[in-house]
């Protein structure tokens, strides 16, 4: 239980609704900002404007998947008002408080570091990334089905990266009967891909591996699907880039060559916001509980 814990949640999308609900059920004192256009009501939850006074007694400040942009603007789909996190507000946070977000840009990192406020980026955690890989893979499969005229079963697929998302993506394709090649950089990943029944190859050989594919799924957040690679891909193929924006694909050249290339970051919040919200809420409950316990031990 989070009885007595002061939580302020600012902005976000449908994922935040599940976080609000679960934190309220755990008896936290929850104040939400940026939800004035939301019809749902949450019992025991306080709605507020973005007032500086909120920050003075906050134990946990929860921001959206991308905490702020480079100017401090917080994304909020349930309000038409601009929400901006200022340095003054961060300075008002108690030193024992913590800021939670999915991923932080330099603006937020620098403010928290300057004022010695702990910042937790949930998407850096292996558990969150692995859980999120499930709706990501499902969303990518949906996009593949919508943008091709063939079945996944029997299709020639390439997955780049044997990380947390890449592995789930490859296993999902394999389960549907696709023929899956995996592009990797490290010898241990090559061995693991082989052991799992995929056809592994090294990224340096990518150009030679894409000559007869139907689908390419990229999870590597660097420019890897270059013009040279796309030049070897059949026009019928579809590229689905799951890496963080701006992805790892030369989208300009793909369009010029007539190869369909889709950037698809943030799929959990798009295709399964309730599940994604539950994932984040469960981790937040654990982290805030640990935060309160640590503060009690230091008192």
**Strand segment count:** 14
- Rounded to the nearest angstrom, the radius of gyration is 22 Å
Strand neighbour order, sheet with most strands:
3-2-1-4-7-8
Uncertain parts: none
**H and E order:** EHEEEEEHEHEHEHEHEHEHEHEHH
Helix content: 25-40%
Q: Which geometry do the CA atoms define? A: elongated
- Write down the overall mean pLDDT: 94
Q: State the separation between the terminal residues, measured CA to CA.
A: 20 Å
Gist of the model:
With 299 residues, this protein is α/β, with parallel strands linked by helices. It has helices spanning 15-25, 87-92, 106-114, 126-146, 164-175, 187-195, 206-209, 227-230, 251-257, 267-271, 273-298; strands at residues 6-10, 29-33, 46-48, 60-62, 73-74, 83-84, 98-101, 118-121, 156-160, 179-184, 199-202, 215-218, 238-241, 260-263.
Report on the structure:
- It is a single chain.
- With 299 residues, the chain is α/β, with parallel strands linked by helices.
- Helices cover 38% and strands 18% of the residues.
- Helix 4 runs antiparallel to helix 11.
- The mean pLDDT is 94.
Task: Considering the chains and any ligands shown, give keywords for the structure.
6-stranded parallel sheet; 14 strands; alpha/beta; 38% helix
Question: What's the structural blueprint in terms of helices and strands?
Answer:
Blueprint: E1 6-10, H1 15-25, E2 29-33, E3 46-48, E4 60-62, E5 73-74, E6 83-84, H2 87-92, E7 98-101, H3 106-114, E8 118-121, H4 126-146, E9 156-160, H5 164-175, E10 179-184, H6 187-195, E11 199-202, H7 206-209, E12 215-218, H8 227-230, E13 238-241, H9 251-257, E14 260-263, H10 267-271, H11 273-298
Parallel strand pairs: 1-2, 1-4, 2-3, 4-7, 7-8, 9-10, 9-12, 10-11, 12-13, 13-14
Antiparallel strand pairs: 5-6
Helix pairs in contact: 1-11, 4-5, 4-11
